[in-house]
Amino acid sequence: xxxxxxxxxxxxxxxxxxxxxxxxxxxxxxxxxxxxxxxxxxxxxxxxxxxxxxxxxxxxxxxxxxxxxxxxxxxxxxxxxxxxxxxxxxxxxxxxxxxxxxxxxxxxxxxxxxxxxxxxxxxxxxxxxxxxxxxxxxxxxxxxxxxxxxxxxxxxxxxxxxxxxxxxxxxxxxxxxxxxxxxxxxxxxxxxxxxxxxxxxxxxxxxxxxxxxxxxxxxxxxxxxxxxxxxxxxxxxxxxxxxxxxxxxxxxxxxxxxxxxxxxxxxxxxxxxxxxxxxxxxxxxxxxxxxxxxxxxxxxxxxxxxxxxxxxxxxxxxxxxx
Length: 322
Fold this sequence. Notes:
Blueprint: H1 2-19, H2 24-28, H3 37-50, H4 57-68, H5 83-118, H6 123-137, H7 140-151, H8 175-213, H9 216-223, H10 228-239, H11 241-265, H12 271-280, H13 284-312
């Protein structure tokens, strides 16, 4: 289903980008001195023809799709560079940011969710539930501004840089110094991407653990004298993984989408900031390329989730029966 789904994504994104008012040529034509209507119209027609935007919309889509099959996403109007080169420069930054965020989300949400379920009704369970509910309610844009104001501003603590991914002298650093400098710059953006993710996932882990803790097989395992750790991790936790994997498959697209806001706030030159600029400038080729790549990454995440189902539960098969 990956191929037809991806094809449907490209059709929808292409149609929406063309329906939106304006075009990349009009947004980049500016007149100096006396306004010459005829000259502006002629320049616009010439540039529309140059980028293939003078053809009917269905012809534009077919031509674009044919180029994509050869990994040619066209030329960026704003940057005047091949789109594939822009993405090659920006994609590693966004993937690094999102992968670090996902590692922290799992490292925090899984143990806290399990512990909250084991200590159901006690102080830790109630405190962590309230704390995560508060985190879930905080908008990323506000949290990002507060982090910059309190931890990256001269008025309070200048512990972290307010923007960028590297210092201006990073090219003169050794590898480990460069790595520390990169992580130092990514610290606040990673916090922005993780707090809602582990708040949501931890609540779901807790709910699934509580549901399985009330099952008959748990009472049977305890009656047989199995250690409580074996009951929790060997039986309850493993049986709680399948619903959690379903949630995890949708977590990556959410984090990836959130990086658009985070990269804009912290001026991180990744795919999120590139998408923001492309939409603002009606840079069709960049928007279509980023939407296609985002769709591919999301479907890969769903595919990995399907594979993880079978690894977590041997009863799950992909032959129509479970």
